[in-house]
Structures are given as structure tokens and as C-alpha cells.
């Protein structure tokens, strides 16, 4: 056990009223480039509780991966810079920690699963060695013990004949198996929070279903918090508890998963949902959000979505909408729902 | 080794027209290629197409130790004006099919008839004439455009090879017209690919594909590299262009939802074979092949409530290697219905016996010994 965990004991077990595992407060990340300052993340707030799955949904350039990298502490700084914000893990601000302290958290408390398993694994080392490395470095185990642990992990992520395959190299595994190894590696030290960045994007649908099921099963078994970063509205619908939709470095909508699909409260979310073809219906012409995502060097004034928004008014070009709590009939708060749109009421009601 | 045999030939639903007398001269072949085809008539007929990539051992003295059977005897027709979707997982041979249809790869065996001319046997002027009429749009708009060429040069390059389509003096105007057709600003003709976004680059690729007024466009994963909101724009553009220029599409993709949206008919491939083929309604709402059913049931649907009414079939294991495919039915190693028969006998792509003569939508070609209908999509 690490020092951090001893210092801040957190109860295990599900429940909404637990202290959050992770709390991101007003996070900003910018990149200094030759052309100017690219504002990748512009004030993101979210919380993850134990046993909860938060899906962060967005297109390329929306800042979803940069936020995750900031949480993991794997941003290249420079060119990246975090001008303001807090990332609280069990109440402690990770941005104020020393490199040494953060290294202890990484892997042991917070682990990450990357999209492309082939390029995330070292091609010249066996998977057994790479899995065992976690135990040797963090737990000081011997090579022999570490290998036994590696086999145990490979079993747990359902790799057939784990003992026989522990000395194989990454290229000898299929895409789905490699992603399982990535999951095994993330699980190795039984972290409390896992960040999965597009974990199934590179996989075929039949394998994708296997991997998502495995991830959900393990999450429940260990009661971990899971941040699932994806662009795929379909994958999210299956596993997430709540969703945060990002656009141009901001969260534009948050909602429990069912409600987001049933009644989106931001024109961008609505546009996204309308623009995907459905498997169970032969559609007519697809709805297409006009225009392109903004250049992060020149994010439009006001609401960043206003040049593409069918509902944009003058106020949208001048005032940046805040993520506001949504209210239903008679001013009752809609739990967990927020929208950063001046006209969320109209959007919510169609 | 599964060589194309008489059994494979039996898969062929109808025989292809080969007019040997006319094909005897190159001129006649070109004349046939230039002749128009009525809407709804077959424009491309693929028969028992096979592509094996040899596996060799040794550097100086090479000997063949096996073959990757990327495409192993597939047959289908493409009708004028329709969109045929081809779906399958990575490694099933769908991209190799695209290359074979363009004659970019030489087929190991089998025929591809374009208006009755077997393009796998053509060469010289006749092949050039075919290639003018069959164009391709590639998956990755970042690597399929030369970064050192301007948009004008990229879109205008087909005219260099086929100068009869547009005289030199007219080319710039032609290119600008094409840019406008695909929704780009014609004034950007002198820009370079890096100055465009992914969606715009794919439009440039489409403009290049349209330049020679082709009849068929083969699209290999044309939108899979694009963001969701941009994907819809490109799909809509492709549908509009199909109506405007009377194009036939072969649309290869792994995204089943997009394929359903754009296709009139759909073929499902598994490990170099066609598992099932039919209209979009037949395949999506009345699939009879277990692989199609598993594939459809695994697609995540962006609607948590619809999700609960769906049955999910989770396949075990991975796709076997195409260098050493299972005997009999190739899907049997992952199939929950597999019996001894499946290991011994290759199921033919034909309308299953039990549905023969019925007018139910389940009566379409399916390569399974135990084909039965199952609704996995939960369509209303």
C-alpha cells in the first residue's frame, strides 16, 4: 500500500454519497505552438466515484484525451501548460504533488488503457516481462514471483493458455488479445481508478463486445472508478453511468446515460445523435452538423459551437454559456443534468 | 487447399455472359466497355474470385510453404445505379476484393466481368478503358493524397493519363467544377492537402475519383477515419453524387450501421468467403447466417433502451488465420451451432433449402448448413 492511500482512507463499496475518488476542478490546458496558444481544455469539471463509470464523449480535438493525460500526469510539459485548475484524487491535489509522489500513484492507484495496444506495448520484450515489470518496480518482487503474477493476470483477462503464452511477444497476439494484455497491465496493481482512452476503437465489433464486457465485469469486481473516453455514442450507451459531452475543450452537457439519449439538452449532442446512421432503421438523408470543429488557436467568441449551431442567436456570439443545472417541472432539479447552452430549455423540449 | 472447383462454380447463381467472338479484338472490347448499361442491369459480375498471397521461406532460394487465402472464391453481381455494401472484420479480405476489382492485384483465379469483358485478362488499351470507368476512394485521406501536390494537380492528374476526357486548356476549369461539386471552394485549387481538414481531404479524394466520369466507384472505408459529425456530411455527399452522376458504388466498411444506411444490397464476408448476401432488409432484419447474426448483435446501438430488447451473441475467440483456415465451414470454430457436418462440408452460398420457393425475406443466399432466421437488431 502506498502512503497516499494510508493517509486518506476511503471506504470501498458502492454508493452515491461516497467521497469522490477523483474530482477535476476548472482544469485548463494549453499548448504553446509556433502559431500561438492552442487552448485544448478550457475549464473542465467532473467527478468520479468508486464503482462509477463516467464516459467522456467528444470528437477529435475536443480535449477529452488531453484531460485524461493531465489526470495521469503524462502530458509533455512544455509544450503543454496547466495555467489553472485542480485535480483532486481522494481530496489531494495531484497538480501540487512532486514527481516522486505522482509516480507512486500512477499504476498503483490510477491506471490507463490506451487505444492502440500494438504501439503501447514494447515489441522487443515478452508480454510476461512487461506485465511483471509492474510487480518488480512497484512491489519489489523477484522475477519468478512477477512471472507467476503475470500468468495470473493473463488468466483473469481470459487469455487462453496463459502459462504457455507468457513468454510470447506482442506481435504474436491478435488485436483483441493485445488489448486484453493492456487491460491486465492496468489492473495489475488493483488501482482504484482506470482511465480507458478509446479502448476498443481499433478492434472489430465482435472483439469490441468481448473487451467491453470484460472491462465492465472487472470494474464491478474491483469496484473501481472508470473514465471511458470515446467518440462512439454506441459503445457509451452500453456501459456508462453518466456522460460528459465535450466540445472545444469544454463540457457542453452532462447527463445520466439514458436521459442523454432520450432528451439531449445541447444542440451539439442532439446533432451528434441525429447524424449517426442506425442499425435498426433504414434512414433517409442523414442530419449533418454543418461546418467543422473549431481551430483551437482561434476558438469562436461566446459559445464555441455557435457557428455550427442551428439555434444560434446574437447572445451566443457574445456570451459564453456556463454549464447550468437543468430544472424540470416546477423548478425541480434534474439530477446530474447540466447543459452549457443559453437555450437548453428549448433544446430539451425538442 | 481449397481450389475453386465445380462445387464453387455451383455457388454462382447465374452464369456470366461471355461473348467470345466480340472479345477477340481489342477494339471490340473497348467498344463493349464504352457501351452504356441500363439501370438495374448487372454492370460488374464477379465469379469465383480467388487471391492467394504466397508465403515463402528462404532468401536466395525461395520456396513456397503455403498461401494466405485472402479471397477464396467469391461471386457477386453489382447492378447499375445501386450500392453494394461489403462488410466484414479486419482480415476477411474485403480490401483485397477492392484491389482485385480495380485490377491493382492480379487474381489467382476467377473472373471479374465488366460489361461482359473479363478485366482480369485484359491488358493495354482495353484495361486502361476499364480503369477509366472504375475509380476508387481510399480510406485514409491523410496518406492517399500526395503532400507535395496542390489540390489542382491531385484532382487534375487523372486527365494526364486519360487526356481524351478533358483537353489541356479546359482542365483547370474542369477541376474547379469538380471541387464545387464536392462542396469545396474552387478558389482553393492551389492549396496543399495539409491545409485541409480530414473531411475536406476526403472530399478531394472523391473529386479525384469523379474526374473521369466513372460508372463505378469502389469506396474502401471512405468515412472510417472521420469524426461523427463530418462522417454524415461525406455520406450525404456520396448519396447526392450517386443520383447526380448515376454511379454504382461498392461500399466496403466495417461499420454496419453506415453500410445499412447507404447500401441497397449487402454482402457479409468472413475469412475470404461470402457468408451471406441479400438486400439490406434481408441481411439486417432477417439474417440467416450465424456469423451475420453475431456481427449484428455485437454492434453497439446508441440507445440504451433499445439495447435492452436485443439479444447479444458474444463470439468466443478470434478470427482464425487466413493462411490456415478451418476445414469445411470457416466460421465453425466460433459458431455455437457447429456440428460434424460443418467440419467436413463447405457450405455453399445459396438460398437455404428450407426457405426455397418461399417469398419470405429469409429466402436469400446464405452459406450455412443450418441457416435459420433470427432477428437480432430488434427492428420495429
TrEMBL record, chain A:
<comment type="similarity">
    <text>Belongs to the ABC transporter superfamily.</text>
</comment>
<protein>
    <submittedName>
        <fullName>ABC transporter ATP-binding protein</fullName>
    </submittedName>
</protein>
<dbReference type="InterPro" id="IPR003439">
    <property type="entry name" value="ABC_transporter-like_ATP-bd"/>
</dbReference>
<dbReference type="InterPro" id="IPR050388">
    <property type="entry name" value="ABC_Ni/Peptide_Import"/>
</dbReference>
<keyword id="KW-0813">Transport</keyword>
<dbReference type="GO" id="GO:0015833">
    <property type="term" value="P:peptide transport"/>
</dbReference>
<keyword id="KW-0472">Membrane</keyword>
<dbReference type="Pfam" id="PF00005">
    <property type="entry name" value="ABC_tran"/>
</dbReference>
<dbReference type="InterPro" id="IPR017871">
    <property type="entry name" value="ABC_transporter-like_CS"/>
</dbReference>
<keyword id="KW-1003">Cell membrane</keyword>
<dbReference type="GO" id="GO:0005886">
    <property type="term" value="C:plasma membrane"/>
</dbReference>
<dbReference type="InterPro" id="IPR013563">
    <property type="entry name" value="Oligopep_ABC_C"/>
</dbReference>
<dbReference type="InterPro" id="IPR003593">
    <property type="entry name" value="AAA+_ATPase"/>
</dbReference>
<dbReference type="InterPro" id="IPR027417">
    <property type="entry name" value="P-loop_NTPase"/>
</dbReference>
<dbReference type="GO" id="GO:0016887">
    <property type="term" value="F:ATP hydrolysis activity"/>
</dbReference>
<keyword id="KW-0547">Nucleotide-binding</keyword>
<feature type="domain" description="ABC transporter">
    <location>
        <begin position="24"/>
        <end position="273"/>
    </location>
</feature>
<dbReference type="Pfam" id="PF08352">
    <property type="entry name" value="oligo_HPY"/>
</dbReference>
<keyword id="KW-0067">ATP-binding</keyword>
<dbReference type="GO" id="GO:0005524">
    <property type="term" value="F:ATP binding"/>
</dbReference>
From TrEMBL, chain B:
<feature type="domain" description="ABC transporter">
    <location>
        <begin position="44"/>
        <end position="296"/>
    </location>
</feature>
<dbReference type="InterPro" id="IPR050319">
    <property type="entry name" value="ABC_transp_ATP-bind"/>
</dbReference>
<keyword id="KW-0067">ATP-binding</keyword>
<dbReference type="Pfam" id="PF08352">
    <property type="entry name" value="oligo_HPY"/>
</dbReference>
<dbReference type="GO" id="GO:0015833">
    <property type="term" value="P:peptide transport"/>
</dbReference>
<protein>
    <submittedName>
        <fullName>Dipeptide ABC transporter ATP-binding protein</fullName>
    </submittedName>
</protein>
<feature type="region of interest" description="Disordered">
    <location>
        <begin position="1"/>
        <end position="23"/>
    </location>
</feature>
<comment type="similarity">
    <text>Belongs to the ABC transporter superfamily.</text>
</comment>
<keyword id="KW-0547">Nucleotide-binding</keyword>
<dbReference type="InterPro" id="IPR003439">
    <property type="entry name" value="ABC_transporter-like_ATP-bd"/>
</dbReference>
<dbReference type="Pfam" id="PF00005">
    <property type="entry name" value="ABC_tran"/>
</dbReference>
<feature type="compositionally biased region" description="Basic and acidic residues">
    <location>
        <begin position="1"/>
        <end position="10"/>
    </location>
</feature>
<dbReference type="GO" id="GO:0016887">
    <property type="term" value="F:ATP hydrolysis activity"/>
</dbReference>
<keyword id="KW-0813">Transport</keyword>
<dbReference type="GO" id="GO:0055085">
    <property type="term" value="P:transmembrane transport"/>
</dbReference>
<dbReference type="InterPro" id="IPR017871">
    <property type="entry name" value="ABC_transporter-like_CS"/>
</dbReference>
<dbReference type="GO" id="GO:0005524">
    <property type="term" value="F:ATP binding"/>
</dbReference>
<dbReference type="InterPro" id="IPR027417">
    <property type="entry name" value="P-loop_NTPase"/>
</dbReference>
<dbReference type="InterPro" id="IPR003593">
    <property type="entry name" value="AAA+_ATPase"/>
</dbReference>
<dbReference type="InterPro" id="IPR013563">
    <property type="entry name" value="Oligopep_ABC_C"/>
</dbReference>
